[in-house]
Design goal:
Layout: H1 29-41, H2 48-61, E1 65-69, H3 72-82, E2 90-94, E3 111-115, E4 137-143, H4 152-162, E5 166-169, E6 177-178, E7 181-182, E8 189-193, E9 206-210, H5 213-223, H6 234-237, H7 253-284, E10 290-292, E11 310-313, H8 323-332, H9 382-386, E12 391-393, H10 402-417, H11 420-423
Parallel strand pairs: 2-3, 2-4, 4-5, 5-8
Antiparallel strand pairs: 1-9, 6-7, 8-9, 10-11, 11-12
Helix pairs in contact: 1-7, 2-7, 3-5, 7-10, 8-10
């Protein structure tokens, strides 16, 4: 009997030329003209174009302040400093995220306490936050992971109860909504990545937003020495002239020029991505072993630009077939896919044994009070530690081209419906799994 699966010699599900459905970012003549204008004027290291982008980005989000940075990492670091996080302080952050969501706290003398994730949203589990709060907790970092908005109502209730600010990292969810509010506008501050792979792509860069003047001006003091003339708060003005953190966080104006055009066309691009991605998932509703990683319809939550789009895997419905073997078979159908997501940060040596600043102790606990050890060993965050076996990447469609999208969806359906052919020689999942960072390759 001839197998239907391409892995066993059958025809591939994907036959059509994708014809640019995965190309990103969409560089238009308007983008090129804006970048060339800055280049030819020699204004790459200026701030005039960046300030215009900041105003437009703030207005897009309905907030008072925006501050451009050279990376999303720097934007999150400045949000932390803006909120006064320093030596001995703790931030709570999900263990499944890109390292930049929390690692800059080390440079401020603070440390991180990781929380587990919700297995459906893949965002921080609100039920695992409150018991981690101590007198040293100075912020809760919420990541809208892989585009899915976190459960902000519950998180904000906990934060407000304890008087702790929330920093949002919406780098995967530009333009996403949580009950009618744009992600990034709900907490005290937010830091966005704008690197080339993001759904709002500007080449390289980041931006911090807030409604708090002190947070904004402290962020300027920290890494934007050339803008110290914009400071108005007396204690900050008194220290003006040199960057307090010793950093130069200025956004490159080739990026901010590109960003201004990208922001104008982003709502239309985001809408088409959203239509395409939801169509893909609609085609797979009810397929055994596969669950959508998107908010329920009618919930008031949206996925923005669907960066790093993923699906949830239920091996129990496919005879225990490993996600590794499942993805191998799907990839053979011509579909860009793969198992896993970001590795659990709390297990990396950087959060356990490494002494980065030669303190004589692991940096994770170097500035904690004597006897306080916030390190979290294997077994402490069970969902985060087991999630690699239950997540897989899906294609990131930039256009609503139904006939092409249907072929990619069929690749997943074919494998799920013929999973029994794969059980006999399933090697299982390798130890660990996942990656320390996500790379949005073409089609992924």
């Amino acid at each position: 009997m001839t197998s239907k699966l391409a892995l066993r010699g059958g025809p591939k599900a994907v036959q059509k030329d994708p014809a640019g459905i995965f190309d990103w970012p969409l560089v238009t003549p308007e983008v090129e003209a804006a970048v060339l204008e800055v280049l030819r004027a020699g204004k790459m290291s200026g701030t005039d174009v960046t300030k215009m982008f900041e105003r437009e980005f703030a207005d897009f989000h309905g907030v008072k302040y925006a501050l451009g940075h050279n990376t999303g990492t720097a934007s999150l670091q400045s949000a932390m400093f803006g909120l006064g996080i320093g030596k001995g302080d703790e931030v709570i952050c999900p263990s499944i995220t890109y390292w930049a969501s929390c690692l800059p706290v080390y440079s401020l003398g603070g440390t991180v306490v990781f929380a587990d994730i919700d297995p459906v949203t893949l965002c921080i589990d609100p039920a695992d936050i409150e018991h981690r709060i101590t007198s040293r907790t100075k912020a809760i970092i919420v990541v809208h992971y892989m585009g899915h908005p976190a459960e902000m109502d519950t998180i904000m209730a906990i934060a407000n109860k304890h008087g702790i600010p929330v920093i949002e990292d919406p780098s995967h969810a530009h333009g996403g909504l949580y009950k009618g509010k744009l992600v990034g506008t709900i907490g005290a501050a937010a830091g966005f990545s704008l690197m080339t792979g993001k759904s709002l792509a500007t080449g390289e860069g980041g931006i911090m937003i807030t409604n708090d003047q002190r947070v904004y001006e402290r962020a300027i003091a920290f890494g934007h020495y050339e803008r110290h003339g914009d400071l108005t708060l007396p204690d900050l003005v008194a220290g003006a002239g040199l960057p307090w953190g010793g950093y130069k966080d200025r956004m490159h104006q080739l990026s901010s020029a590109m960003a201004r055009v990208q922001l104008l066309k982003y709502p239309a691009e985001m809408a088409e991505i959203d239509k395409a991605m939801n169509y893909f998932w609609d085609l797979l509703e009810g397929v055994p072993g596969i669950r959508t990683h998107r908010p329920p319809k009618g919930s008031g939550l949206t996925m923005g630009g669907w960066y790093a789009a993923a699906g949830l895997y239920v091996p129990e419905e496919l005879g225990g077939l490993s996600v590794t073997r499942f993805c191998e078979a799907v990839a053979a159908e011509g579909v860009p896919t793969g198992p896993g997501c970001n590795k659990a940060l709390h297990l990396h040596p950087l959060f356990n044994t490494l002494d980065v600043y030669r303190d004589g102790l692991p940096t994770r606990i170097a500035n904690s009070p004597a006897g306080v050890d916030v390190r979290q060993p294997v077994g402490s965050l069970p969902v985060a530690e087991g999630i690699q076996a239950r997540v897989y990447r899906i294609p990131w469609f930039k256009h609503y081209w139904p006939e092409i999208i249907a072929e990619y969806a069929q690749g997943y359906r074919k494998v799920a419906e013929n999973y029994k052919e794969l059980l006999a020689d399933d090697p299982g999942n390798p130890p660990g799994g996942g990656n320390w960072f996500l790379s949005q390759r073409r089609g992924a």
